[in-house]
Amino acid sequence: MEARIEMLPEKKLIGKRLIMSLSDNRTFELWRSFMSERKKIEKSISADLFCLQVYPPSYNFKHFNPEAKFEKWAAMEVANFDIIPDEMESYTVTCGLYAVFIHKGAASAGYKTFRYIFETWLPRSDYAIDNRPHFELLGEKYKNDDADSEEEVWIPIKQKSNVNLF
Predict the structure, then answer these.
(1) Range 139-146, long-range pairs (CB < 8 A, 24+ positions)
(2) Burial, 118: exposed, middle or buried (Cβ in 10 Å; 0-12, 13-18, 19+)?
(3) Average pLDDT of 95-101?
(4) What is the 8-class DSSP label of residue 78?
(5) Is the pTM higher than 0.70?
(6) Domains of the chain
(7) Rounded Cα distance, 33 and 37, in Å
(8) Where are the beta strands (DSSP E) in the chain?
(9) Which of 72, 75, 79, 115 has its CA 20 to 30 A from that of 91?
């Protein structure tokens, strides 16, 4: 699986969020609530959907803890925040460097892609995880739990520090 490295420009998102953990996964609840109201979002830039994860600085990707809490968003990109529908919030993703991967297959098999990213690609790369939101971009090829589905997985990265002690 190849990664492409991209500098993401700032993104303005409007959507809904929930606090959850992997052991208390409320993703279905979040998306059901969002999808029933997404047509209320005005000035969306495209029909693409963002599944955004905001991890606290203390979140440890190396020592997996399924109880660790994070914030998950279901959102759409907008031109501005002039009109935010009731029951929704705004979020700005700041610009930064990302490694982008294509996950092909059912959403339920996404763990294989993430395992590759975090256990194989990242340790072998010149990059480390940066403390910015992670997200999946669900575009026209996304078909939820269909074997023919495709989505982009965006992982925030920064150059590894190459400290020479001698």
Answers:
(1) 139/48, 140/47, 140/48, 142/49, 144/106, 144/107, 145/106, 145/107, 145/108, 146/106
(2) middle
(3) 98
(4) B
(5) yes
(6) 4-159 (3.20.80.10)
(7) 7
(8) 4-8, 11-20, 49-54, 70-77, 89-93, 96-104, 127-129, 134-138, 150-159
(9) 115
pLDDT digits (tens, 9 = 90+) for 5-54: 999 999 999 999 999 999 999 999 999 999 999 999 998 999 999 999 99
Q: What is the mean pLDDT of the chain?
A: 93
* Amino acid letter, residue 50: F
Report, in this order, helix, strand and coil percent for the chain, each rounded to 5: 20, 40, 45
Between the alpha carbon of residue 28 and those of residues 24, 73, 85, the distances in Å are 11, 11, 21
Which SS3 state, helix, strand or coil, does residue 33 take?
A: helix
The single residue listed with the structure tokens 């009109």 is 83
User: Is the distance from CB of 20 to CB of 26 less than 8 angstroms?
Assistant: yes
